[in-house]
């Protein structure tokens, strides 16, 4: 799993590329803590996340909690249909602003 961070118009965009499963989740969680600002706007781009297990969903929950502890507004983009369905069925989707693209995420957070 590779993570990339870039700034787009004052919004931190963190992209995840690879599989987010029980093997990669601990490292991803640690890496995200280092990339995540204490305050501001963040789009988490999952469009290159080819697989996400329940361990990956746990990482998203921890990211949400980290955002809530700080002053971070968070949006998710690139959710695979099966991940979106699981998040919706569990009520988990309601925690996040979910958009179709990074550009929509940047726009949604800066309005």
From TrEMBL:
Domain of life: Bacteria
Cross-referenced Pfam families: STAS (PF01740)
Gene3D superfamilies in alphabetical order: STAS domain
CDD domains recorded: STAS_anti-anti-sigma_factors (cd07043)
GO molecular function: anti-sigma factor antagonist activity
Similarity comment text for this entry: Belongs to the anti-sigma-factor antagonist family.
Entry protein name: Anti-sigma factor antagonist
Organism whose genome encodes this protein: Nonomuraea phyllanthi
Lineage: Bacteria, Bacillati, Actinomycetota, Actinomycetes, Streptosporangiales
